[in-house]
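anyone seen this seq b4? input:
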Amino acid sequence: MTDLTTVLVVTTVAGLVTGLGAVPVLFQTSFSHRVYDSALGFAGGVMFGASVFALIVPGTETGTVAEVTVGVAVGAAFLLVANRLIPHAHAEYLRWKADGTARDEDAEEADSVRKAVLIGGSITIHNAPEGLAIGVAFASGLEGVGFLLALVIGIQNIPDGFAFAVPAGATGVTKPRLVAYTTLSGAVPQPVAAFVGFSLVELSEGLFPVAAGFAAGAMIAVVFREMVPSSHGHGYSDSATATFVVGFLLIFVVDTVLVV
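predicted toks r here
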């Protein structure tokens, strides 16, 4: 079984890739809805594909359908409850972008703080289930599944980082801080969640089917509660749907080629 240090290194690297999503924002601060929606669609497709091929399928192969089903249900319920506690950052961003009214300096400063809190909360919800899934896979002795998850999550982290960097950049932070904040949004919650997942399975063997279902349910809920609605309200639903399918097929091909 892979040791904890390796798990933390792998998840940290996958999390650090999130920073690449901020690179386009360094050269251009305003992006069309088509680009933003397409990025969300692609990230959603990758997450959905990872949920199915890297979590649900291996979960049913190592446990029972009932265990995975319970995990998916609980994971989705957890995400929906968390979403109630932490407002939806993408929807807030769209409202801010549509609001062209002038504000005084105090109002702008307060608004920037509110944006940072909303975006930080949202990105944590996105990344925690992914890190949890990686930790659980490695702790369960499924190294192939763990590395596959880290790979596909690293791929997904790039458009996810872009989706984070665009509204974060609108707060007026400096470019170095924008890159740092975007990178940390993935590099902190994913290793922490991986540590939790690894530790839980260490305490209770055979937890992978339920834990994999939990992570999959949370990720699927993120996709359909946040990403799909956010990418389908501005006239570019076809572009978002097309990139969603591309992301899903990419993970299907990766999973097929890298048989685990």
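The CA atoms of residues 64 and 209 lie 7 Å apart. The longest helix spans residues 105-139. kinda curious what u guys think
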